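Students often ask why inverse folding is considered easier than folding. One informal answer: many sequences map to the same fold, so there is more than one right answer. In these notes we will look at a single instance of the problem. The structure comes first.
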């Protein structure tokens, strides 16, 4: 017989566990995480290799008519799987592999519009194979993203190819941009999670600090404003953070690797950094729901992405 305490504990049981979101760069992993959480947590950009670290985003969903009727999914967004040369890229690769290794379920996200990397069997890169090994130990869901940009007749063969190469694996077409089918994807993930007590408190969304989220939001603006001109090794570091009378004052530095890159970020007579400041402040105010003052500076930290100690200083260090 169960004791009263045990029965009460079981009442609170949900489907709970970790879901690592993995895939090639630029397939929409971070867009999907932001969409599921209904807020901007992580940077998204048209440039590959935007995400540099693993990031937790916790989402609770209802499973109507099921037992248990609720799931708490702890999503882990990861850097796109790619060739891991150089300390920063190696750090990013290890972060993705570790997330897949530690997960209860792996969501492999595919860009359905990408002719090169979308189909199963075309992913030969060494690091992607390593990711595959880490992922294979767990139940897998395949998400075919960006269906808002692909005609149905093109989608069906892709779905069949994935389903055929991985019997028993759910293959779900979706659009992170429009939200189409994202609910169905979340339910499919939830069904593969173990039943037990929730992993996190109800109100927890991420394990990252507001400062870290601010860095992501400013970095996203940097990607948007600079586009192709952006030096790959740029980072953002929040140095001061003051909350007063319902407002936040943030002082942040944009770190580049070479003196020659500084004028690119600053722009003619400071025009670009001013634009960055305006756009950054608006995005931060929206994310935090209060007015934000933002002071931005540019700093050169020579070859930081090649030096382990500088990587750590900028937050890409220790255990990925
Ligand atoms: N049309 C369309 N575009 C999308 C969709 N999802 C993401 N994108 C776009 O795809 C690009 C890459 O999105 P990200 O979310 O940054 O992709 P990612 O997989 O996190 O990329 P990395 O962090 O670099 O690995 C951005 O320009 C997004 O706006 C979608 O469902 N439809
Ligand atoms: Mg990303």
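Output (designed amino acids):
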């Amino acid at each position: 017989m169960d004791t009263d305490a045990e029965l009460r504990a079981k009442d609170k049981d949900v489907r709970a566990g970790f879901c690592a979101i993995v895939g090639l760069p630029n397939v929409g992993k971070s867009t999907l995480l932001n969409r599921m959480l209904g807020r901007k947590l992580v940077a998204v950009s048209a440039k590959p290799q935007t995400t540099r670290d693993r990031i937790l985003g916790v989402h609770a969903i209802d499973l109507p008519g099921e037992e248990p009727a609720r799931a708490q999914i702890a999503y882990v967004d990861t850097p796109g799987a790619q060739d891991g040369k150089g300390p920063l890229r190696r750090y990013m690769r290890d972060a993705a592999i570790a997330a897949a290794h530690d997960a209860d379920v792996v969501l492999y996200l595919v860009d359905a519009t990408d002719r090169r990397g979308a189909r199963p069997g075309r992913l030969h890169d060494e690091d992607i194979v390593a990711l595959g090994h880490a992922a294979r130990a767990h139940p897998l869901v395949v998400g075919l993203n960006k269906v808002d940009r692909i005609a149905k007749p093109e989608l069906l063969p892709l779905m069949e190819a994935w389903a055929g190469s991985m019997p028993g694996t759910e293959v779900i077409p979706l659009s992170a941009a429009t939200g189409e089918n994202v609910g169905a994807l979340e339910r499919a993930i939830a069904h593969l999670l173990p039943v037990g007590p929730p992993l996190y408190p109800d109100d927890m969304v991420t394990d990252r600090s507001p400062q870290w989220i601010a860095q992501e939001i400013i970095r996203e603006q940097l990607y948007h404003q600079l586009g192709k001109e952006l030096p790959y090794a740029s980072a953002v570091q929040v140095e001061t953070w003051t909350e007063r009378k319902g407002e936040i004052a943030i002082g942040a530095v944009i770190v580049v690797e070479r003196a020659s890159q500084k004028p690119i970020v600053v722009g003619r007579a400071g025009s670009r950094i001013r634009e960055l400041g305006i756009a950054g402040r608006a995005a931060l105010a929206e994310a935090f729901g209060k007015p934000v003052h933002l002071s931005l500076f540019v700093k050169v930290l020579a070859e930081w992405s090649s030096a382990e100690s500088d990587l750590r200083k900028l937050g890409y260090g220790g255990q990925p």
